[in-house]
């Protein structure tokens, strides 16, 4: 991945997905803000879209985090201003914990 002009690290809030049982015994999903990360966002390339589509994932963007442990897991939400992204996959591309790539899908219908 190469940096493009005006591409800077941006702040994303991480909302962890939690499941709980309500008073009737039904499971409910809640999202709790528990961290933030700084990363670069870019659209995925056509060959990556096909790869993830074949694995039954709709991926629209990738976010690259530099340094630190992965702060989001599959199913979590990443929020940047008025945009919401759901994490579909996490990849440690360096193998050393230096860079993490979050493959995400942007959702405009979620809150």
Q: What does this entry look like structurally?
A:
By secondary structure, the chain is mainly beta. It has a single domain, classed as Bacteriophage SPP1 head-tail adaptor protein (Thrombin, subunit H, Beta Barrel). Helices cover 8% and strands 51% of the residues. It has one helix at residues 46-54, and strands spanning 10-21, 27-43, 61-66, 77-80, 83-91, 99-107. A 6-stranded antiparallel barrel has the order 1-2-3-6-5-4. The longest helix is centred in the middle third of the chain and has 9 residues, at 46-54. It starts with 9 loop residues before the first strand and ends with a strand. The model has no long low-confidence stretch (mean pLDDT 87).
> Share of helix among residues?
under 10%
* Residue-averaged pLDDT: 87
CATH architectural label: Beta Barrel
Most strands sheet: 6 strands, antiparallel, barrel
Strand content: over 45%
How many β-strand runs? 6
Domains, number:
1
The gross shape turns out to be: globular
SSE layout and pairing:
Layout: E1 10-21, E2 27-43, H1 46-54, E3 61-66, E4 77-80, E5 83-91, E6 99-107
Antiparallel strand pairs: 1-2, 1-4, 2-3, 3-6, 4-5, 5-6
């Amino acid at each position: 991945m190469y940096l493009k002009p005006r591409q800077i690290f941006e702040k994303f809030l991480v909302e962890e997905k939690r499941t709980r049982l309500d008073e009737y015994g039904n499971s409910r999903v809640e999202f709790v803000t528990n961290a933030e990360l700084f990363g670069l966002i870019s659209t995925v390339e056509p060959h990556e879209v096909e790869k993830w589509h074949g694995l039954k994932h709709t991926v629209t963007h990738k976010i690259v985090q530099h340094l630190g442990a992965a702060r989001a897991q599959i199913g979590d939400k990443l929020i940047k201003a008025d945009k919401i992204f759901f994490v579909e996959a996490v990849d440690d591309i360096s193998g050393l914990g230096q860079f993490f790539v979050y493959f995400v899908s942007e959702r405009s219908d979620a809150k």
